[in-house]
Design a protein that fits this description.
Elements lengths: L1 H28 L2 H4 L2 H17 L1 H17 L5 H11 L1 H26 L1 H8 L4 H9 L1 H11 L4 H6 L1 H4 L3 H32 L6 H5 L2 H24 L3
């Protein structure tokens, strides 16, 4: 218990320190009234577009490194996906995101497998004992479905496979293929937000945003993936 508490405290303090540093640096330069204004959003949207056009390679590397660090700090996946689509577009953004998230997830999986395996098994093994047996029969296919279905926080989904002892190659390729459909939809949503800001000098209404093709189509895609995920989950967790 003492070891577990120390790990939790260390991770929490590290996360809070980095988050606090970021917030301090951000709000030292911008006020809340500025960041909540549409003019601020549009101006910075144009600024990021200029940076992307002038320093595409450098921005790509920075995004990739940031994504890996974000995953190692147990961050959620959706902000990364929206940013990827917003800056790079749905095609390049989704490819960058899936590679970055898979790399970060693999590193996290290796770290947890090496240092915290006993702790993870203690917490999750009893709950997933039947699933563990299924993984032994056809590891890659079951892990691919596991990634495709989703439904749990991203950082937890990277840790649970430790109890299944998934092979590294299956973890990498299962993550790349299984996560990509969701990543593409979220990246398309990020690109849609970029296009809406680009087209509108004044802030559009909520209804106009929701029913624009840039946003409406990715939402439909997300709903379809959700339905497919529920169907697969019922089959996946059967018996």
């Amino acid at each position: 218990m003492k070891k577990e508490k120390k790990i939790k405290i260390f991770l929490a303090l590290t996360y809070l320190l980095i988050l606090s540093s970021f917030l301090w640096a951000f709000f030292s330069n911008f006020s809340f009234s500025e960041i909540s204004s549409y003019e601020f959003i549009k101006n910075n949207h144009n600024y990021f577009n200029e940076i992307r056009n002038k320093n595409f390679f450098v921005l790509s590397i920075l995004f990739f490194l940031f994504t890996i660090i974000w995953v190692l700090l147990l961050g959620f996946g959706s902000p990364i996906l929206l940013i990827a689509g917003f800056i790079f577009g749905k095609w390049i953004g989704s490819i960058y995101a899936v590679i970055g998230l898979t790399t970060g997830a693999t590193l996290l999986y290796l770290i947890v497998s090496y240092f915290f395996k006993d702790l993870v098994e203690e917490k999750f093994l009893k709950r997933f004992i039947k699933l563990s047996e299924k993984f032994k029969k056809n590891e890659f296919n079951f892990f691919l479905i596991y990634r495709l279905v989703g439904g749990i926080p991203f950082f937890i989904s990277n840790i649970i496979p430790v109890i299944f002892k998934v092979k590294i190659k299956n973890f990498i390729f299962g993550s790349l293929l299984g996560m990509y459909p969701q990543i593409f939809v979220w990246s398309a949503l990020g690109q849609g937000l970029n296009e809406i800001i680009d087209k509108n000098k004044e802030p559009p209404s909520i209804s106009k945003i929701l029913f624009s093709t840039e946003i409406f189509i990715p939402i439909i895609g997300f709903i379809l993936l959700l339905i497919i995920g529920i169907i697969l989950k019922n089959i996946f967790y059967k018996n």
